[in-house]
Amino acid sequence: MAKQSLSELRFDPIEHKYWIGKKCIPGVSEILQKVGLSKDYSQIDPFYRDRGIATHKAIELHLKGILDPASLDPAVKPCFQAFLAYWKGRSEPILALEKPMADLSDSFAGTPDLITHKAIYDWKCSKSHDRVAELQGQAYQCLAIDNHILGTPFIVVELHDDGSFSEYPYGDNCKEWGDVMSLYRWKTK
């Protein structure tokens, strides 16, 4: 795998699959699901899945400075307003925004929501906190390091339907992700 280049990384957003050359490599969510630590998101009501996707896109376009707020679907507005309340007053230079990345040493990939000099951020449109997000963050920290982007700690920001938010800072510990990858390799032998 080391002979491959990160520039060859391709991401299929419809299938949610990552490829380097002709080889499909697992994504962070796929790995967490395979080892039994994450729920099967394919079983989630399409409304909530689509709302989350649309909210992420709205945040991405906002951070790029090209969002037309009038274009937001009413279902997305509360979570987007929660993001705006959280992000208010911040001016952090963006190092990576919804950028697919691969870690060639461990052969996995993922797409962190946002990496700045201060943190790696992950937006969640959820009603209840899932601590598995900590492991997802550890994976994203490994991806950032392997891609020569530093952005620690990892912070989960839950965006709620009422326009409020909750912040969960997880620090910069990457120790358990190696154990997750070991279990994944064992399960996929």
Can you put this structure into words, describing what you see?
This protein has 189 residues and is of the alpha+beta class. It has five helices and ten strands, in the order E-E-E-H-H-H-E-E-E-E-E-H-E-E-H. The protein has a single domain (6-187), classed as Lambda Exonuclease, Chain A, CATH 3.90.320. 34% of the residues lie in helices and 22% in strands. Helix 4 packs across helix 5. The model has no long low-confidence stretch (mean pLDDT 89).
What is the ordering of alpha helices and beta strands? EEEHHHEEEEEHEEH
Counting DSSP E segments of at least 2 residues, the number of strands comes to 10
Strand residue content: 15-25%
What's the average pLDDT?
89
CATH overall fold name = Lambda Exonuclease, Chain A
Residue share in helix: 25-40%
**How many DSSP helices?**
5
Unreliable segments of 5+ consecutive residues: none
What would you call the structural class?
alpha+beta
Rg of Cα set: 16 Å
Shape: globular
Major β-sheet profile: 5 strands, mixed
Strand order of the largest sheet: 4-7-8-9-10
First CA to last CA: what distance? 17 Å
CATH architecture: Alpha-Beta Complex
Counting copies of identical and different chains, the oligomeric state is single chain
- Per CATH, the class reads Alpha Beta
Query: What is the number of independent domains?
Result: 1
